[in-house]
Amino acid sequence: MRTKNKEKRETQRHYRTCNLCEAMCGLEIEYSGQDIIAIRGDKNDPFSQGHICPKATALEDIYRDPDRLKLPVRRTETGWQQMSWEEAFSEVVAGIQAVQAKHGNNAVGVYQGNPNVHNMGAMIYSPPFVRSLRTKNRFSATSADQLPHHFAADLMFGHPQLLPIPDVDRTHYMLMLGANPLASNGSIMTAPGIKKRLQGIQKRGGKIVVIDPRRTETAVLADEHHFIKPGADALFLLALLHTIHAEGLDNPGELASQMDGLSVIQDIVADFSPESVADKTGIPAEAVKQIARDFCASKTAVCYGRMGVSTQEFGGLCQWLVNVINLVTGNMDSPGGAMFPAPAIDVITVLGGNRPGKQRFNRWQSAVRKLPEFGGELPVSGLAEEILTEGPAQIKSMVTIAGNPVLSSPNGRQLDEAFENLDFMVSIDIYINETTRHANIILPPTTGLETEHYDLVFHNLAVRNSSKYSEALFEPVEGAKHDWEIFQELRFRFENNHDTNRQRNKLDLPRRLPPRKIIDLGLRFGPYGAKGINQKKLQTNGQQGLTVQRLINSKHGIDLGPHKPMFNVRLMTENGRIQLAPQLLVEDLERLNSKFSKTPKEPLTLIGRRHLRSNNSWMHNSPRLTKGKNRCTLLISPKDADKHQLEDGMMTVVNSRVGHVQLPVEVSDEMMPGVVSIPHGWGHNRKGTQLQVAEKHAGVSINDLTDEMTMDVLTGNAAFSGVPVWLSIPE
Q: With left for phi above 0 and alpha for psi between -120 and 50, is residue 214 left, alpha or beta?
């Protein structure tokens, strides 16, 4: 990537971690003054080893974007008007407090989008700010994405962040369900250069098997791909477990003495033979049996399920059963299986929350549908109705933080209507997008190249332990504020208005320290720090004494070694044992049986898809990431295209219970007959946005079709996969 400025000037190099997706790729940015000359993969980064994807080049697009807000704005009858930070903070606090004074604290709702977990400031400083609002109506992208992972981890291992990560670099057999890491760069599996890592499995004589209703980019690379009917993954996993037990293949190894519930699992799976579920899954019984045999015969193996199995009606069951398969075959907490990282800053032990037996589920419910809370948040599928339903518990005001739920939540049109009816709304965001256009005030933080960065979340999800600190490349424009400064100021004002005599907690670091110092303390008291926790047990690869300054000096990052068995220091259940058969999950099997005991109807079912050049809707204002052919198409199998008399390029209307969209057809044998696909994140055709590039590549929003009433009722996660749809001819 080159700039047009050819003037010869002295160039410098800046090294940082890309924060646009989960992969944590190391970048080498060549620049001169304020001009970026090139963005390349950092070949000396010990984790990513020079890998880069197209998204990294968008860091410059975002930094230069003329549509990006840098100072606060208010919405007026004549358009958006710039304002000072003091005016903005005062009006935000006054607006929210007016609503709470009249309707109560819970009349304010909060939504946090996916980009928050990619930003150090938001991760540290937004939680105290949100708590200062004193509302139980908190929502986030978690319940539109990975909530089933956290739910299963909490019930089985004692904490929602104890997520087992595939040890892809050492496994010999990888079974993937509903996952396409070649497009996502890994998801709940931070793995830069994932294609090379997967090819490594094959080079050492191993095997990759993909289960998916679409023959994805990853499925093409795999040794085997099997189509599966959307929503039937839990039945497939139960059939695998049936075969494993029936053929005496279970071998939990050393973990057997730490498990509760193995006999319960064996009793449950007896009713789910591969033959009994073949018609429901679409996978022949013999194929299921062979997968089970190959998995268990492999030197090491790991089962991994991602978006396709999380964002469906039985996401909780799927993530539970994925863990069970790894556990009963001896592939949990073992090299080549599913393992727990040992990050330099452990978000569980260092930042708090490691209390065994702590209840995190269903402590309160939403007002309308009584949807259960998890981890302090309510399901986003219920957000619109909480705003639109009149009554004493109605949400009257919203705070959105780095999110665009109108495009990313089910039935986005309904949420669009709901935001239009709010008394007051504030957004902390860099764009006037489909959601923030409803805000009264937008507070824009600095972004990307203007910020320091340390990945607090994704080191906890990485396939190998490492650590890296990125300094800012450019100074922000005069008057701009970092996200942590915005959160800190708003928090101070709300807390001071609530209780001026409140005693301050000395351990409340976000109140009195900037991010770099908090990260430094986290490193020093982390497992590799001079005052580290459990250093001996974690076997820190000789990398003790980590500090921010040491990471800055080691500009490419520091390798902390492969994962090691961790259950002896990680398990946090109340009795200190693995819970193989939690009651809530076992009881949910009745719902699964009820669903599949009925004769299925014959409509098409809709699934989403992801592209390497797209992560979230906000990246669609990058010229580099949106150029090329239209990617917002309806993928349909040749069989279904013939049935509906459709050809490549023709326009069709896709209808669901909640709405309809019109888009071009793309006929492809990569789709399972009976299943169609629309990509996530598009739909930039609503009035009032200020996204020049995105509006030229508007596409349609898949979430104008997805149904807020269809969800995983156990966990509260949205069910985007398997939505019934039908096609019609445009008028």
A: beta
> Residue 217 corresponds to which amino acid?
E
506: confidence class by pLDDT, cuts 50, 70, 90: low
Amino acid 612: pLDDT: 82
**Closest by CA position to 237, among listed 360, 148, 335, 154:** 148
What is the C-alpha to C-alpha distance for residues 359 and 361, in angstroms, rounded to an integer?
6
Measure the CA–CA gap between 511 and 323, rounded to whole angstroms.
39
The pLDDT tens digits of the residues spanning 65-121 come to 999 999 999 999 999 999 999 999 999 999 999 999 999 999 999 999 999 999 999
Cβ neighbors of 672 (< 8 A, separation 6 or more) are 213, 214, 227, 228, 229, 282, 637
- 355 vs 718: which has the higher pLDDT: 718
Q: What is the DSSP string of 309-341?
A: HHSSTTHHHHHHHHHHHHHHTT-BSSTTSEE--
Residues 6+ apart with CB under 8 A from 512: none
Element (H, E) at 30: strand 26-32
Tokens of 580: 């193989």
Report pLDDT for 237. 98
pLDDT at 536 over 60: no
Instruction: Tell me the C-alpha distance between 621 and 65, whole Å.
Output: 8
What residues contact residue 108 under an 8 Å CB cut-off, 6+ apart?
96, 99, 100, 133, 135, 137, 395, 396, 397, 398, 399
- Give the tokens for residue 167: 């040890």
d(CA 614, CA 167): 26
Helix (H) or strand (E) segment spanning residue 101: helix 85-103
> Exposed (0-12), middle (13-18) or buried (19+): which is 221, by Cβ within 10 Å?
middle
495 to each of 40, 119, 133, 258, 472, how far by Cα in Å? 44, 24, 8, 45, 30
In this prediction, residue 707 carries a pLDDT of 97
Contacts with 529 (C-beta within 8 Å, 6 or more apart), sequence order: 344, 523, 544, 545, 546, 547
Query: What is the amino acid identity at position 280?
Result: K
Q: Round to whole Å and give the CA distance between 403 and 649.
A: 32
What domains sit in the chain, N to C, each tagged with a CATH number?
73-143+373-450+477-498 (3.40.50.740), 147-343+573-591 (3.40.228.10), 601-728 (2.40.40.20)
Orientation of helix 315-328 relative to helix 262-269, angle to 10°: 120
Residue 538 identity: L
Amino acid found at 590 = E
Q: Where are the alpha helices (DSSP H) in 305-437?
A: 307-310, 315-328, 383-388, 405-408, 412-420
Q: Which two tokens stand for residue 164?
A: 């087992």
CA dihedral (310, 381, 610, 695) in degrees, to 10, reads -170
Burial label, 514 (beta-carbon count in 10 A; 0-12, 13-18, 19+): middle
**Is the pLDDT reported for residue 412 higher than 70?**
yes
Token readout for 358 is 């702590």
Q: Which residues are CB-neighbours of 253 under 8 A, at least 6 positions away?
A: 330, 334
* Amino acid at site 172: H
Q: Quick one: tokens of 654?
A: 């896709």
The residue count of the chain comes to 731
Taking the C-alpha atoms of residue 573 and residue 324, their distance in angstroms, rounded to an integer, is 16
Per-residue tokens: 124: 């540290």
Q: Which residues of 138-175 are buried (b: 16+ CB within 10 A; e: fewer)?
A: bbbbbbbbbbbbbbbbbbbbbbbbbbbbbbbebbbbbb
Structure tokens at 614: 């797209």
CB burial of 264-280 (b: ≥16 within 10 Å; e: otherwise) equals ebbebbeebbbeebbeb
